[in-house]
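Sat 14:20. Reprocessing the chain from the morning session after the first attempt stalled halfway. Input below, unchanged.
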Amino acid sequence: MPAKADPAKQREFCETTLYPLMHLAKTGKAALLFLDASHFVMGCDFLGYVYGKARRLVKTYSGRKRYNVLGALNFVSKKVTTITNETYITSLEICALLEKLTLEYAGKPIHLVLDNARYQKCSIVTKMAQELNIHLVYIPPYSPNLIERLWKHVKNKLRTKYYDQFDAFQQKIDAIVNDTDKSDKTIIDRLIGEKVQLFDVPVPSPAHTHPLTATAHLPPAA
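Finished this time. Tokens:
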């Protein structure tokens, strides 16, 4: 458990905001997406491996090139909308993704769940979200974001092969991400659903038994 996590705030957030938004999204009345960035470093984390009784040497990439993927995962369809680059993810990339989401989900309210990273909570981002009528839903500090499970899935798939060309490395990442709502949807549905990791042990009550029936305190447009 993260030392600075607040279990009470996490549970309150889930019961009053997140669970009702999940229910709203499943009824088709709004789009609920989880936003986060992942940084894939070729030649560092993804070297490939071989199981066997005899010792084998596996070649590694000699450089350290990074592929950044900023993604917004649709809670219902599991489709991921992305902005990618090889430099850094900043508020500019966040704004570009907001514009992309507005076009993709035109005519439907958008609720975007994200953490409190400074470049995601700055005035540039909040102002654009307000102009585009996108509701920014910031999770309590040090709380898990469901899209993190997707990045773990992508990294597990990457570790099954050695890459000696950065282009091939990028293409494989893109292919895995693009498959989340297609051939991999069954897997992603199991990884990302209504079950959210909480750090407390609640006392059973009707509210806990039926969280999706709780009254939603939806955030205003940020």
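The longest helix spans residues 7-26.
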